[in-house]
Amino acid sequence: MNLLIVGGAGYIGSHAVRLLLDAGHTVTVYDNLSRGHRQAVPDGMLVEGELSDRNTLVGVLKEKNIDAVMHFAAFALVNESVNDPALYYRNNVIAAVDLLDAMREANVKKIVFSSTTATYGEPEVIPIAETTLQQPINPYGFTKLVFEQALADYAAAYGFGYAALRYFNAAGARPDGTIGEDHDPETHLIPIVLQVALGQRKHITVFGDDYATPDGTCIRDYIHVDDLGAAHLAALERLESGKGICVNLGTGRGTSVREIIDACRDVTGHAIPEVMGERRAGDPPELVADASLAKQWLDWTPKYTDVRQIVETAWRWHQNHPNGYASN
Ligand code: UDP
């Protein structure tokens, strides 16, 4: 297929691009590089542009004869969304609807969308199934939920076919160490812990150890970024006009902050000092996927079943690129 990967210069998008190319698809990346990296995109594939630039976007969709779009171009930081919701509603809702309308104009109606566990808020029942009531607790989660609804409405009215893939905690890097996670500022647990191992930070601050979990630290479902990419490939093959599906992408296994730090110690051989800090606002104690729908609908299971394997791939990237893409 001819695919337009919106946000393909970002962390998850750039990994998906590699897998789509490996599978024989033709890829064009559309990205404004506000958060992504030019070096993360293979040569000759990047079109720089805004989602709100209808002419450029429609031009690319038509000229490249695009069959389907993958949308990875949303902002994804909870704290930022609380402090600057306008940024989130503009980019994650308004610009994303601009994308759908450009697709309508170009008569491209298949889309795979990166949604999130943040649409569930703080669910009481773990593991989280897709039928769990979606009650976001921050603007980030709301913007993703609003766009899921837009997709459902566009499917019903205009015949869009979509998959909204609700990611749990994306982690790791392409195993060959060529691309990986590079955020500024970095807020995610695994890269921060590995930056401590590299000597770039003095310690990791654990955001609370008084949660109602076995070791008191928060539990998340860490999923390798290539497993996410593989699920996108599978979803692409199953898109049907006028229909949509929302699917959790997680491993079904929970790992605590403390277990992640220990895994990083094992993998890197560094002591990795830790400091106990306050809880971070808006952190649910436990988020773990019921991944059975993904298995059933996508015939997909994650290949990385041990967080150590995930950390190993991330460590390779961080060692090769201590300053991220600026190291190239
Ligand atoms: N965390 C932490 N210290 C840090 C960064 C994260 O203790 O410096 C914790 C955070 O409170 C959460 C988990 O690690 O429980 C995963 O956080 P991350 O930001 O990576 O992902 P999130 O689950 O927020 O999407």
UniProtKB/TrEMBL annotation:
Top enzyme category: isomerase
InterPro entries, sorted: Epimerase_deHydtase, NAD(P)-bd_dom_sf, UDP_G4E
PANTHER family xref list: UDP-ARABINOSE 4-EPIMERASE 1, UDP-GLUCOSE 4-EPIMERASE
UniProt similarity note: Belongs to the NAD(P)-dependent epimerase/dehydratase family.
GO molecular function: UDP-glucose 4-epimerase activity
Domain of life: Bacteria
EC number: 5.1.3.2
Organism whose genome encodes this protein: Roseiconus lacunae
Coiled coil: none
Known cofactor(s): NAD(+)
Name of the protein: UDP-glucose 4-epimerase
Keywords on record: Carbohydrate metabolism, Isomerase, NAD
Residue span, NAD-dependent epimerase/dehydratase domain: 4-250
Pfam short name (any one): Epimerase
Assembly notes: Homodimer.
